[in-house]
Amino acid sequence: MSSADSENKPRGPRAPRADAQRNRDKLVQVARAAFAAADDTVPLEGIARDAGVGIGTLYRHFPTREALVEAVYAAELDDVTGCVPALLQELPPDAALRAWMGRYAAFIATKRGMADTLRAGWASGRIATPATRERITAAIATILASGAETGSLRTDIDPRDITVMLLGILLTTTTGDEPDQTERLLDLVMDALRPKAAD
Question: What is the pTM of this model?
Answer without folding.
Answer: 0.80
